[in-house]
TrEMBL record:
This is FYVE-type domain-containing protein. Gene3D superfamilies: 3.30.530.20. It comes from the Eukaryota.
């Protein structure tokens, strides 16, 4: 869920860099925002654009969607806790069709439940109208494949954990300085002698979390995505050691999500966004009822 939830534009861009689920996006409004108590509970109105092959040469037009994106947890009638993700097209007077795009419609629902320490079961259903029969063979399989790609969401969550911890360690090193480590590989204890010492060498061949040296055979490189204050996305290859990779990726995603909210200052006293209270009440947008209806109609579990 940590890799899936994206209530802000910057989090959507980071997710897209790992999952590759859209080419353009915007957050139009936030109805329910994550809180410290429910860091994965969100109901956001979004817009996204999906690139269609041959659109660049004007043979076809890209498809875009205005939709509500809902995530969270719900209890099934047997008491089991399920994670859900709902994407459902909506229309508003202030979201007219855009030039050179065709507005599509979709309704997709997915549920996850954990059946083992590293095993998840996925149940999902989706209905899509990309706006034209000719394009269905291209757009629908691609969209459904991305929507139900649990492994990509899991990978995205792991990379987001690493990026968050990297920012945290960088801030700490600015205050206290990076620790001096012995000139041996922290993984295999091989002496590091055939390298230039000093800041430049240390920057290229140390784990960026523990600052320990890693040899060429033991270093693990991951490409992480970052969004700057101007919402520009950048990707950097970062070196880690095995121990730090294992420790960070096994951290509780809920704890990391809460820590990230505290660090960024995005703390909300309640779920309902004040800007939407006057026009949308909790009764008029009952996502839990919508989720239950999906379960009953599908006869799930």
């Amino acid at each position: 869920m940590y890799g899936l939830v994206s209530p802000t534009l910057e989090s959507m861009r980071v997710k897209a860099s790992y999952v590759d689920d859209f080419s353009g996006a915007a957050v139009l409004d936030s109805i329910v925002e994550p809180s410290l108590e429910e860091p994965y509970q969100a109901l956001i109105v979004k817009w996204m654009e999906i690139d269609i092959p041959f659109a660049s040469i004007n043979l076809v037009k890209n498809r875009d969607y205005v939709y509500i994106d809902a995530t969270g947890f719900i209890k099934w009638r047997n008491g089991e806790r399920l994670a859900y993700h709902l994407m459902h097209s909506v229309n508003f007077p202030k979201t007219p069709d855009l030039p050179n795009r065709i507005r599509g419609n979709m309704s997709a629902m997915a549920f996850w439940r954990q059946v083992g320490s590293n095993t998840m079961e996925l149940f999902g259903t989706a209905v899509m109208d990309p706006g034209g029969d000719m394009i269905k063979r291209i757009a629908v399989p691609n969209m459904v494949g991305v929507f139900f790609c649990t492994l990509k969401y899991a990978y995205c969550g792991q990379m987001k954990k690493l990026a968050f911890m990297l920012d945290k360690k960088y801030a700490e090193s600015k205050l206290h300085g990076a620790p001096n480590k012995k000139n041996i590989c922290v993984t295999c204890s091989t002496p590091i002698t055939s390298r230039r010492l000093g800041d430049f060498g240390k920057s290229d061949h140390t784990c960026k979390l523990c600052f320990g040296y890693v040899c060429h055979a033991c270093k693990i490189v991951r490409k992480l995505s970052f969004v700057d204050p101007d919402l520009l996305l950048s990707q950097r290859k970062v070196t880690f050691c095995t121990a730090c990779i294992s420790e960070v990726t096994s951290m509780s995603s809920v704890d990391v999500a809460r820590a990230q909210m505290l660090a960024s200052g995005r703390i909300y006293a309640g779920h309902m966004h004040s800007g939407m209270q006057s026009s949308i009440s909790s009764d008029s947008v009952d996502t839990r009822s919508m989720i239950s209806d999906y379960l009953v109609d599908a006869g799930a579990f």
